[in-house]
Amino acid sequence: MAQEFDVIVIGGGPSGSSATAFLSKAGKSVLLLDRAKFPREKVCGDGISGRSVGVIRELGILGSFKSVEHQDMFGVTFSSPNGTLVPIPSASGSDAPGFVCRREVFDNVLFQHAKSLATKTIEGFFATDLVFDGSKIVGVKGNQDGAEIEFRAKVVVCADGVGGMTARKLGAYNNDEAHQHAGIRCYYEGVEGMGDQIELHFVDSAVPGYFWIFPLPNKRANVGLCMVVSDMKKKKANLQMLMKGIIENHPVFKPRFQNAKRITEIKSWLLPLASRRMKLAGNGYVLLGDAASLIDPFTGEGIGNALSSGKYASMAIIRAFERNDFSGSSLSEYPRALWANIGNEIGTNHRMQRMANSKFLMNLVIGKAKRSKEVRAVISDAILNPNNHKTLIDPLFILRALLA
Ligand SMILES: Cc1cc2nc3c(=O)[nH]c(=O)nc-3n(C[C@H](O)[C@H](O)[C@H](O)COP(=O)(O)OP(=O)(O)OC[C@H]3O[C@@H](n4cnc5c(N)ncnc54)[C@H](O)[C@@H]3O)c2cc1C
Prior knowledge:
The structure is a single chain. By secondary structure, the chain is an alpha+beta fold. It folds into three domains: about 5-70 and about 100-175 and about 275-350, 3-Layer(bba) Sandwich (FAD/NAD(P)-binding domain), CATH 3.50.50; about 175-270, D-Amino Acid Oxidase, subunit A, domain 2 (D-Amino Acid Oxidase, Chain A, domain 2), CATH 3.30.9; about 355-404, no CATH class. Helix content is about 35%, strand content about 25%. The protein has 14 helices and 19 strands. It has helices at about 15-25, 50-60, 105-115, 165-170, 230-235, 240-250, 255, 305-325, 330, 335-355, 360-370, 375-385, 390-395, 395-404; strands spanning about 5-10, 30-35, 45-50, 70-75, 75-80, 85-90, 100, 120-125, 125-135, 135-145, 145-160, 180-190, 200, 210-215, 220-230, 260, 265-270, 280, 285. The strands form three sheets. Strands 1, 2, 8, 9, 10, 11, 18 and 19 form an eight-stranded mixed β-sheet that branches. The protein binds flavin-adenine dinucleotide (FAD).
């Protein structure tokens, strides 16, 4: 007979590890499954934002990151299509609001924490299918060391990322190219001019996408480029060629990469964006993180929303146990709470993503930020306080930037 748990979590990335930790702390028996053995790599920009830091703090493990390789970040440097560079420091204070940490390292800290709390963890377990009882999900099937195994639970948490099988099986996979980013990234050593800020560059040749340089310790950097897939196809853009052109020919970046060396191959991956809302809960299941298409449509940041989805899904699952009701309507408390928390920010950032289509507006706002302390303060506030993003697309803010 299949072994039974309160909850099965498929995927031990940020979303699944967050859910495992919150649920285990609430006394639920949790089985955590991942096809990988940790530490494992994940294609990412490695930028850990303020939202991520908030959930990590709630999990009580912020201190664990102090002892692993990471680089504290104190703001963002933007540049516009016409080459204007503007550093936007975070408000002064001793604690870094965010940091950059290779995902191999970052995810391992989260995963080991979740594993230490879970009832049982299996690494190297490849989930192949969900187990249905009528329209209800009651478990998962998969392979481990060549053997097929089945587990059962009251709730299955689907946190297997954009490449996982659960969203596809549940008809919740976001395959809308207007709501997906394609991204490439690699690591460089010796990029000149890096400081204690992440860098987002709206380079003329690459807008509406952006080029990033995220500094790491030992003069290393995560370097990449992303763009909405439908825009990329419309432009017939080749991301690798665009990035090569920026690094080798752009007047601002060529000198900075002159003595730099690429130390890894360039890898690409998809980013499913939260500008298209998917169904996140049903009978006996919830979807989290990338499996739920929760990435910020402007910044490409998904770790914070993945961690938050683990938190809000856990709260709904705990209440479902109190009611002994694991139906879709009971578990829908999760998407309601999640969208109440991140919905405004996603809506605003989707409009900002479309604004980035206009080189004129990007030049205007970034150029104005260069000259005006007030505009820099608004942007800095919006970066630190996601609920204030709205100001950036406020027509009055843009008009003031135009007239000032
Ligand atoms: C190029 C690029 C740059 C990015 N940059 C940033 C950034 O700088 N900052 C940021 O916040 N976000 C960034 N993101 C987004 C971020 O990487 C994701 O949003 C985040 O990893 C989502 O976490 P997750 O836990 O939902 O999924 P994942 O991190 O993908 O974890 C899913 C887990 O499920 C496991 N799994 C998959 N299938 C199975 C299966 N069948 N059986 C068992 N286990 C399975 C995998 O092994 C994996 O461990 C970027 C993404 C890309 C592609």
